[in-house]
Amino acid sequence: MRGFFPLVFSALASAAAIAEPRQAPVVTVVSATSLGGNGCPTGKFSYTLSIDKTVGTLIFDVYRGYVGPTAPPDSREQFCDFAVVFRFPLGCTSGTITAIPGGYIQLGAGINGTFSSQYTISPGTLGPNPANLVFTSAQWAAGGDYTEVQAIPVKETIRNENERNVTFTARSRLFLTAPGPDVTGQFGVDHMDISISQPTVC
Ligand SMILES: *[C@@H]1O[C@H](CO)[C@@H](O)[C@H](O)[C@H]1NC(C)=O
Ligand SMILES: *[C@@H]1O[C@H](CO)[C@@H](O)[C@H](O)[C@H]1NC(C)=O
């Protein structure tokens, strides 16, 4: 019998090692910066990270469009370009970049609010750009807070330590279209959560 138990033990141990699933990759957010635009001028853009650093919350102090008799001139349309740096593990990782814009919106009769964004990533590849978000007075006449989810598939192949920081760039704008000069509305992107949901090894 001597030697039998160690043999069984080591056979079980290697079976467990084979059955163990590959560890799910963890993608963290390193930083976010404004690249310019009247919706995110210097000093009016900031961000926070979740404790585990997997979610970055961008905070826009003045990314807000207005229409109506007392609206500031040229405030119907606002722009903001920004970049978020993700840190990927080595190897191939695929997942979904989830951008969740939110804020206050109020649209008088017939006004529409639109948020349009083009996303790119470097290095790596993204799936199709998300459709414009369109809000109408039918839903938002009374005013309230919205959140919307934009999901963009992503794939990264990281070959060495120096490639691990990956820059996700957005060129975004929001604008209001009004049926006439007398109706009042406003639409803001006040915050946006950005993360990579369900990253998996590919
Ligand atoms: C990548 O991000 C890390 C933070 O996780 C930072 O310390 C490092 O300087 C960055 N590297 C590059 C090349 O930007
Ligand atoms: C708002 O959107 C609706 C539906 O897409 C469209 O029919 C309408 O013309 C738009 N209104 C304005 C003022 O652009």
Automatic annotation (TrEMBL):
Residues 1-19 form the signal peptide. Transmembrane segments: none annotated. The lineage of its organism: Eukaryota, Fungi, Dikarya, Ascomycota, Pezizomycotina. It comes from the Eukaryota. Keywords: Signal. This is Secreted protein. The keyword Magnesium does not apply. Pfam families: DUF4360.
